[in-house]
User: What shape does this take?
Amino acid sequence: MKKNGYTVIELLVVMIIFGIIVAVTIGLTAHAFEDNSSEYYEVKVKNIESIAKRYAMSIEELKTEGSKIITIKELVDAGYYNPDNKEGDVIDPRNNKTTMNNTKIKLTYDEKDGYKAILIEEE
Assistant: This one.
């Protein structure tokens, strides 16, 4: 007798294997849907501080004054930091709406520690 189609057991085995594959795939890709904007913000802040430190080395009066406050917009205008859009804005990754252009950075210099740049969080 010729058999047409599949048995119930064959279909169940295929469905169980397919279910295992789907479960493993979902488990491995679940992190792709997490909100990591705060981690990205921290990385962006460290990058801005590093670039501001290099910018500070180009300011001669910083050695005599000891400290100076600049904005991220000044870094963009001086060509030290690339903006996130054509308008020259640096976008805050935590909400993707507000700009960080007016965020202040404190540059300091002393003989012992050298140059430092710290982003001043606005409240």
In short: Residues 18 and 24 are 10 Å apart (CA to CA). The longest strand covers residues 104-110. Strands lie at 67-71, 104-110, 114-120.
